[in-house]
Amino acid sequence: MAVFPVRVVPDPVLRQKSKRVRLIDGSIQRLIGNMLETMHSAPGRVGLAAPQVGTLLRVIVIGMPGEEDIALINPEIVRRTGERSVTEGCLSVPGYFGEIKRAQSVRVKGRDPSGKEIRIKAEELLAQALEHEIDHLNGVLYIDHLESMDKLHKIEPEIAQL
Ligand code: NI
Questions:
Q1: Contact indicator for 28, 113 with CB cutoff of 8 Å
Q2: 108 C-alpha to center of ligand 1: Å?
Q3: How sure is the predictor about 76, in pLDDT bands with cuts at 50, 70 and 90?
Q4: Which residue out of 37, 99, 133, 147 is catalytically annotated?
Q5: Does the pTM of the predicted model rise above 0.85?
Q6: Can you give the chain as a three-state secondary structure string?
Q7: Quick one: which of 153, 133, 74, 83 has its CA closest to 109?
Q8: What is the tens place of the pLDDT at every residue in 20-50?
Q9: Is 99 a catalytic residue?
Q10: Which architecture does CATH list for 12-154?
């Protein structure tokens, strides 16, 4: 396993749409292992999407504090409910955080690293992280959701990096 450098804006890879994974093989398992190690290489990181390490495949990992890590292949949001204001940061947009709107809760389906279909009902930070990482697979960054530049601020160290 290895820690990969995380791509930062304006790297064009962050703006491309990732491809669906057709076959979950050893290379996908290795990608997931490396993404988990990269996510865990600094405190405060709760998620990472494959394009952030330069791979345009639909793979995300989530590491919520105190909970088991989640790796999702071809994740899709099947339902969004409600709306709330959140504070959000991103490893690929270093030095800043913003105030944006996210769903109150989401339902997501995808496959786990063994290929089994899984469904997740998520609220709060987990819902936010899932929306954020799935956005990355579509070339979307949280800064695209800012209502105005007044909602973007210089970072404080304790803000979660998704
Ligand atoms: Ni991010």
A1: yes
A2: 18
A3: very high
A4: 133
A5: yes
A6: CCCCCCCCCCCHHHHCCCECCCCCCHHHHHHHHHHHHHHHCCCCECEEEHHHHCCCECEEEECCCCCCCEEEEEEEEEEEECCEEEEEECCCCCCEEEEEEECCEEEEEEECCCCCEEEEEEEHHHHHHHHHHHHHHCCCCHHHHCCCHHHEEECCCCCCEC
A7: 74
A8: 999 999 999 999 999 999 999 977 789 999 9
A9: no
A10: Alpha-Beta Complex (3.90)
C-alpha 3 to ligand 1 mean position (Å): 16
Residue 39 CA, distance from chain mean position: 10
| Mean predicted confidence (pLDDT) in 88-102 | 94
- Tokens read off for 139: 């070339």
> Which region among 33-37, 39-43, 59-63, 78-82 has the lowest average model confidence (pLDDT)?
39-43
Q: What separation in Å is there between the alpha carbon of 129 and the centre of ligand 1? A: 9
For residue 161, the model assigns a pLDDT of 64
